[in-house]
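Anyone else keep sequences and structure tokens together like this?

Example one:
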Amino acid sequence: MYDSIHQFEPLLPSDRQWQELLPVAEKIVTASLKLSSAAHESTRSTLRELVRQMNSFYSNRIEGQSTHPHNIERALQNNFSDRPDEARLQRIALAHISAERELEQHLGDRGALTSTFLLEAHRTLYSRLGLDDRLSDDGEPIVPGEIRSRDVRVGHRVPPAAASVRRFLQRLDDVYGKASGWERVLIYTACAHHRVAWVHPFLDGNGRTTRLQSHSALWKLSEGLWSPSRGFARSTQLYYAALHNADSPRRGDYDGRGNLSGQGFFEWVQYFLGVCDDQVSYMTSMLALDGIKQRIEALILIRAAQDKGFRREAILPLIHVFGLGPVTRGEFTQMTGLGERTARSLLSTLRADGLLVSDNSHGPVRFGLPLGSLNILFPNLYPEVNLPLN
């Protein structure tokens, strides 16, 4: 039974390992900062909300509790399934989306790599669920934001004794709580993700809460345009294997100086950074203007071949709205070069499809990302949307 804080050292990579990790972190930070100028802010905002739904789907899928992306979209419109089990999964997905949004809004100047924020993330998530939706696998109620008060077993591993959890969390605060500089924050976030999971501070919900903390810690860097949760879910076996290997006891005199394996911990951080690098690289390629132009054109031509309401004259106006932002309805119809009646009909078709969205019936239109367009506009971003509904 772990009950002393030295038992989860090392908490940071060695100096030699740090020098190997730093160039990868620098590459991620540079690429991520460049994304802040890709497309128009209104388009990035639309994409940000889509990524939020995706995070909910993937984080819950890791826990074996995901619902179909279309069911998440319906739940956002207050359309819940008549099947109790499916409706429960929809409520869990909505709670994750709402909690993520709230945590982002309350970041302020404080960092997310503190135990205070961790407890707040757990509370913010589980306080959104009714009692029946927040029962552990053993049927025990999960109390939002409450540190566990009894000892537990996680598979074959026994986390620290309940009486010592606060001491372990304080040690995490001392090491990670004042991280500054994006390269350092990125590496510290990777370290904290494992060590928080290792401490297992809550009766249940540790995985979801840890992923919310990691997302929040990197949110001002990512601007919500990418998140490690997608990478974790798309390599779940590697995710759990890397976490497990970092749990290992020290493997001899050449495996660091802590109680736990320094090499296993280093490999976990490498995996985490690799996931982040992959997510940033993917989103960079998807938001490159030349590529998105071609995919918008392909989407409209495919739609036009299937539905006479779509016309190729929508291509250039849609590219304009994607890159330069909202336009009035009159401006959009003028850009099509069509007659007024035909242009208005085309505008209505695009709005009904969701490729154009507006806050009201007369306001400016901006670029939308309906789930049915993703296989062409953002291939492989969220492939599960194409799976058949049960």
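And example two:
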Amino acid sequence: MICGIPIPLSGRFAMVASSVTRQPPPPIFDQLAYLPDPFARHTGSVPEHLPVQARTTHEDDFWHALRFLASYEGSTATFNAYRRELERLLQWSWLVQEKSIRDLKREDIEQFIRFCQEPPRAWIGTKNCARFTGPDDERRTHPDWRPFVVSVSKVQARAGRSPDPSSYASSQASIKSLFAILSSFFNFLIQEEAVTSNPVALIRQKSKYLVSGQRREVRRLSNLQWDFVLETAEHLADEYPDRHERTLFVMQCLYAMYLRISELVADERHIPTMSDFRRDSDNNWWFEVVGKGNKARSVSVSDAMLKALKRYRGHLGLTPLPTPGERTPLIPTLGGRKAVTSTRHIRAIVQQCFDQAVERMRLKGLSDESHELQAATVHWLRHTGISEDVKQRPVDHVRDDAGHASSLTTDRYIDAERRERHASARHKPMKADS
């Protein structure tokens, strides 16, 4: 039985499938910097830590997957997402099914989807960790790494609750992403003439894995919570300017320009600098972003955001407004001139501000609001900014500033209709004569 679904297994295969799911599989792909050249294949160049299948009968699988992943080297986030799903597919195909990925059919992919929905306990970890550790010439697998990871919320963690592998559940978003990535990979294999058809595309009834019509909740701060967060950032900046003028500016960027956390840090795609703020011929200011999917967009800069920029630049000892070609990092490290390169760094800045806002709300007797704020993440600031703007700006303007591919995504932030719908239902009687 795999994932609670009876699958006919017999003889040696049944014993192998049972044994391999009782122990965690080894990771396959390291970070890009440590991977072999995908176009310089030669005998014995497959990493020795891999299962023997990868180094013998299924060596072609490894190289096809490696070449596919190498095409996403321009975006760390995309590479990591595709690596995760391909690694799971290879581990399952090699170890559980004892098949090459080139032999997988539609029914195999359906089994794999079910496997991902309910993976073996031994394949589930309780913390995110690197696949490999050590210097270049001594890379070794991390003993705590697992293909699947279960976690708890910030609030649960603070209450002392630990992650439990038995509570693992795949989200609708993760299953949808899995379909998209696998389909893209098999289309690549078709182009490489490794397979003749895409088994993912042959799955006609994806609806049995995906719930349609489900409205994703927009997680945002209430107006009161945002007021406390912003005031907290302002108080910190006034009291400890050397450390927290940057905090204030980060919070303002995330809210007023709906930036994603990755759009504030330097990576291989782009290094955000002050010159990304640009003035057009009409004297209007824009912020140029390289965002999700390596897509560039221009975000309109409000007068309030421009005022925030001037304050921050004044603290840094710069002219009030940037000049074309200015290379000053948008978010520098404290006491340095290098750009922040870690999203974890930005999360820590935001979390500290959230924590202090929570404490201020508690002191004011706002226990319910402060408890909800404890669950907030950085991305809530983007959601909050968009949700407020769709109340007063044209949806297509907000869509373009937010970088949404469709107005349907932006429409999720319009909650007036739901508010009115609930108001009309609030006083419905339970009895007809009430």
